[in-house]
Amino acid sequence: MDAATHPAQGQAYVRALGYAAEYDAAGPEARRQALELKLAYGVRSSTALLLESEWARREGGGETDSGFVRAGLLLKQRVMRKDLGPLDTWRASVLAGVDLPGEEGVRESTHVSPRLGVATTAILGRHGLNGQADWTGRIGEDDRFRLNGSYLYRLAPATYAVDTRGAWYAVAEWLNEATTGGDWRSDAAMGLLYEARAWAAEIGLRLPLAQDGLPELRQEVVIGLRWLP
Amino acid sequence: MKRILIIVVLLLAQGGALRAEEPDVVSPAQPAASTVVLTVYGLSCPLCSNNLTGQLKRIPGVEEVEIDLNTGAVSVRLAEGQSVSRWQWLNAVEQAGFTLKDVRPAASP
Question: Domains (ranges, CATH) in chain A?
Answer without folding.
Answer: 12-227 (2.40.128.140)
